[in-house]
Amino acid sequence: MAKLHVATTINGEPMEFLCDPGQSLLDALRGTLGLTGTKEGCGTGDCGACSITLDGRLVCSCLMLAAEAEGREIATIEGMAAGEDLHPLQQKFLEMAALQCGICTPGMLIAARNLLERNPDPTETEVRFWLAGNLCRCTGYDKIVRAVMETAEEMRGAAR
Amino acid sequence: MTDTRYLAPQTLDEAVGAFAAAAGAARILAGGTDLLVQMRAGLLRPGLIIDIKKIEEMTAIVEEPDGGFRVGAAVSGAALAEHPRFGQVWPGVLEAVNLIGSTQVQGRASPGGNLCNASPAGDSVPAMIAAGAVVTVQGPNGRRQMPVEAVPAGPGRTNLTPGEILVSFALPARPKGSGDAYLRMIPRTEMDIAVVGVGVSLTIQGGTVTAARVGLGAVAPTVLLVADAADALIGSKLDDAALEAAAAACRAACRPIDDKRGTIVYRTKVAGVLLKRTVAIAAERAGRA
Ligand SMILES: Cc1cc2nc3c(=O)[nH]c(=O)nc-3n(C[C@H](O)[C@H](O)[C@H](O)COP(=O)(O)OP(=O)(O)OC[C@H]3O[C@@H](n4cnc5c(N)ncnc54)[C@H](O)[C@@H]3O)c2cc1C
Ligand code: FES
Ligand code: FES
């Protein structure tokens, strides 16, 4: 099968890879590129474990072809911490035990960061609706929602 | 495994040419939130995937000089929500489009994909029908227009002819005193498939309904335009008798399936209830417009 050549930007770095035309971006990230931080839960858009941003827009990487990444900007969980410095959301998730098994966590973090970039002061209802496409089988969601709310408050404080 | 090819043309002519030449082996890719799921489930193995999102007209949202809107078939729900004016003029259409899936799905899912996927429960379709939206379609024989309600042919089937691509939705200018709304009934509160969906668009002048359209989803093999319901509303002051007549028309239009989400009796009853609730919201919005 003829492979496609894709030139894209991932976490700020130019990247090139080959993919099959019908291959999902999730597959290319985890397989070809070895970026296994992005998780696969369902492969059908239901669980959000594969969440990434595409030109700043939150999407499921399982519902997107790798070929569609050509010329676009992708952000994955691997780009969230700056070296050893965790993103405030990552730090807060740890402090508040907003994760147990961790499979939903990269998707939750990417989705939550995207929310706070758009809306630094979300209500609890807004957080819950924004994260409705991110399923978690462990935490019962409450700790996650509270961690996002607290991070938002801290980040607003820091920005002042 | 058969080979799949991927094409992302910049022009509609190129896309139509490739789509027609592939004669049934090709699939159009808009947001992919239906297509990729179907491919993964093994229901489809297209020989050619034609990504239409690089074609400018497909992702444009244009407010026309006369006040109408033209929405590209591949515009995502998230992009439509960010438009500064669209949701003010067509709040019902926007809320219907924005009900499709999660935030992530909204980043990709398009009204064109929702219509062409031809699910009887597609959420944006009843609202588009109520809005009186007309689609432009381009194929090997040129362009044509059709009302949204003429597009679905049955579950998973449309009346587009081979090689035709849906280009855009045209929504008419709004007279003063107009409002629209969409409501669906789902067993959960989020992320579910409609058991019934109702779209209503009204124009009210001096307290009397002068124009109305009603779209009804998930209760028949295709989403329906219910002209009898609209007729019951037009000329009325939305009194109880008119509302009950419109609700009865919606119930009469139902030819639903019986499944775990809703029995025939339940879906039929809910169609009437939802009609009344949706009218109330559309009327309230019309009063403010
Ligand atoms: C988790 C999840 C939740 C969902 N929830 C809902 C929901 O609540 N309500 C709902 O209605 N739907 C829902 N859907 C289904 C889906 O998201 C919608 O139908 C969506 O609008 C499809 O749009 P798309 O752009 O992704 O279509 P695509 O998947 O790109 O296309 C869908 C079909 O239409 C064809 N097509 C697309 N564009 C064109 C065009 N311009 N011309 C001709 N053919 C075309 C494609 O070939 C394909 O067969 C959900 C899906 C997922 C994965
Ligand atoms: S793996 Fe993509 S949404 Fe579940
Ligand atoms: S922590 Fe296990 S699924 Fe969320």
List the keywords.
heterodimer, A: alpha+beta, DNA polymerase, domain 1, 2 domains, five-stranded mixed beta sheet, 5 helices, 34% helix, globular, B: 289 residues, alpha+beta, Enolase-like, domain 1, five-stranded antiparallel beta sheet, four-stranded antiparallel beta sheet, 12 helices, 14 strands, binds flavin-adenine dinucleotide, binds FE2/S2 (inorganic) cluster, 2Fe-2S_ferredoxin-type (chain A), Diverse_Oxidoreductases (chain A), metal-binding (chain A)
Any overview of this molecule?
Chain A is an alpha+beta fold. Chain A has two domains: 4-79, Beta-grasp domain (Ubiquitin-like (UB roll), Roll), CATH 3.10.20.30; 88-159, DNA polymerase, domain 1 (Orthogonal Bundle). Chain A has five helices and five strands, in the order E-E-H-E-E-E-H-H-H-H. Chain A has helices spanning 25-32, 88-95, 105-118, 124-130, 142-159; strands spanning 4-10, 13-19, 51-54, 57-60, 73-75. A five-stranded mixed sheet of chain A has the order 2-1-5-3-4, sandwiched between helices. In chain A, a hairpin with a 2-residue loop joins strand 1 and strand 2. The radius of gyration of chain A is 16 Å and the shape is globular. The mean pLDDT of chain A is 97. The mean pLDDT of chain B is 95. Chain B has helices at 12-21, 35-40, 56-59, 77-82, 86-89, 91-98, 103-106, 111-117, 124-131, 227-233, 240-253, 264-288; strands spanning 5-7, 26-29, 48-51, 61-63, 69-72, 134-139, 142-147, 152-154, 157-158, 165-171, 178-185, 196-205, 208-217, 224-225. With 289 residues, chain B is an alpha+beta fold. In chain B, the strands form four sheets. Chain B has a five-stranded antiparallel sheet with strand order 4-5-10-6-7. A four-stranded antiparallel sheet of chain B has the order 11-12-13-14. A three-stranded parallel sheet of chain B has the order 1-3-2, with helices on one face. Chain B is globular and about 60 Å long. In chain B, 36% of the residues lie in helices and 25% in strands. In chain B, helix 11 crosses helix 12 (264-288). Chain B has two domains: 5-171, 2-Layer Sandwich (Uridine Diphospho-n-acetylenolpyruvylglucosamine Reductase, domain 3), CATH 3.30.465.10; 178-288, CO dehydrogenase flavoprotein, C-terminal domain (Enolase-like, domain 1, 2-Layer Sandwich). Chain A binds chain B through residues 1-2, 4, 20-22, 24, 43-46, 48, 51, 54, 57-60, 62-65, 67-68, 70, 111, 114-115, 129-134, and chain B through 1, 3-6, 8, 29, 31-33, 36-37, 39-41, 45-46, 49, 51, 53, 76, 78, 101-105, 107-108, 190-191. The complex binds flavin-adenine dinucleotide and FE2/S2 (inorganic) cluster (2 copies).
